[in-house]
Amino acid sequence: MVQINEMNDVQPSSQSRTAAHTHIKGLGLDEHGIAKKVEGGFVGQADAREACGIIVDLIKSKKMSGKAILLAGGPGTGKTALALAISQELGPKVPFCPIVGSELYSAEVKKTAALMENFRRAIGLRIKEIKEVYEGEVIELTPEEAENPLGGYGKTISHVVVGLKTAKGTKNLRLDPSIYESIQKERVTVGDVIYIEANTGAVKRVGRSDAYATEFDLEAEEYVPLPKGEVHKTKEIIQDVTLHDLDVANSRPQGGQDVLSMMGQLLKPRKTEITEKLRTEVNKVVSKYIDQGVAELIPGVLFIDEVNMLDIEVFTYLNRALESSIAPIVVLASNRGLTTIRGSDDDSTKAPHGCPPDLIDRLLIIRTLPYNQEEIKTIVSKRATLEGLAVTPDALDKLAVHGVSISLRYALQLLAPAGVLSKTAGRSEITVDDIEECELLFLDSRRSIKVLEETKGFL
Ligand SMILES: Nc1ncnc2c1ncn2[C@@H]1O[C@H](COP(=O)(O)OP(=O)(O)O)[C@@H](O)[C@H]1O
Ligand SMILES: [Mg+2]
User: The domain 38-122+300-368 belongs to what CATH superfamily?
Assistant: First the structure.
């Protein structure tokens, strides 16, 4: 007899892989917008969190379009974490496009074009359409072969038979080979719930029928109930795309699927590059759809980290882009005080955060403050739990002291190697000794500079 054992010691993959901000799960505000003490992974920084909460409310009520926010504060004070939390509060349907200032500079794309592309990645469009579809659970999927009309030994697919089942009945469809291709592209198998658009033949996989929910499955799979009603029906289809998706779909010769192809049909095809002209055309179609009530604009968030890396040309472009009628909310972050603006002729003029005064003038500025020892202790212990490490209270205190005197990042970075040391020594908890050993092994920035200064000539 085959024996089957349950595996309890395997962690789900979402738990075993951690990134720098894995513990951040939203802003952690209560219903009045007041920062809760330790909530949503966020510790302290109450004023900034509450300010971000107001921004989230404004974005949700669509009052923030074309405005910009600056998160200003020292390194490791949680600016990136705040931006991420804003996007989490907005939910997955609102586009969030994070970039770093230096990302805009490449030899291939003009910097202003790169900025525009990211602007359009951050503007969403929700399109509602009533479509005639065939929807149901796939019960049969048989390609029918025919002799190749061009002769030779090969066979071609003449058509494909698809059986669809709903709660009301079943229907067998004979479809064109081109539809078979999109069926294969969507990786449809028997037991999936799909719909096929009657006009375009576009195939969309909705999920796996929940009749199959008990089957062994490695991948995370979305199970959906068996569709009600007839197989052939009209259905309201909601799609979330970004303006950039539309640009891309229309720049490709054949266009994409679904709504993208619908939009694609309206514009002249056979463009291969996203040009300013193409964008204007896409905008025209989009405004028409909005006027007709078919589509709704969802301005998302464009996050530009290290804003001091932008230069004067990009700044003027940014000003203009913010003033256009469709603009996302722009969140900037900087850890610089007074620095020179990149690209300005006169290097002696310094500006706050390296931003020109006219941009600063239109920003809402949110300040992030350094953490105190108690807060750092909480952040470190949260990270330790997340990484599956136990730390003795003494060791935690020691890390918190480092967090204040050196930096939060240094304290967080010592955790993982200290965990390795304690494990090799056969302990289950990280002790003060482990931390001290790690300090010797891994220099912080200040000590590293000191070493370099003392030993001139090597490197
Ligand atoms: N208030 C906080 N609560 C919990 N974790 C925080 C907090 N502030 C920062 N962190 C964590 O500390 C690390 C550094 O913060 P980060 O947001 O990258 O700083 P910045 O962008 O300001 O340089 C990240 O891992 C971040 O998730
Ligand atoms: Mg950052």
Answer: P-loop containing nucleotide triphosphate hydrolases (3.40.50.300)
Does the pLDDT at position 15 exceed 60? Answer: no
Q: Is 366 exposed, middle or buried (0-12, 13-18, 19+ CB in 10 A)?
A: buried
Where are the chain's structural domains? 38-122+300-368, 128-240, 243-290, 373-453
Does the pLDDT at position 6 exceed 60? no
CB 33 within 8 A of CB 56: no
Cβ of residue 338 lying under 6 Å from some atom of ligand 1: no
CA distance 195 to 190: 13
Residue 225 has pLDDT above 70, yes or no: yes
Q: Which residues surround ligand 2, an ion (CB under 5 A)?
A: 80
Domain 128-240 in CATH 2.40.50.360: yes
Which atom of ligand 1 has the smallest separation from the CA of 24?
A: 27
- The Å distance, Cα 368 to ligand 2 centre, comes to 12
| Whether the Cβ atoms of residue 439 and residue 423 lie closer than 8 Å to each other | no
- Residue 17: predicted pLDDT: 65
Least confident residue range of 113-127, 140-154, 281-295: 140-154
Does CATH place domain 373-453 in 1.10.8.60? yes
**Ligand 1: does its nearest atom lie under 6 Å from the Cβ of 75?**
yes
Pocket test for ligand 1, best of 18, 22, 24, 410 (most atoms within 8 A of CB): 24
Q: Which segments of 166-220 are extended strands (E)?
A: 170-175, 192-197, 203-209
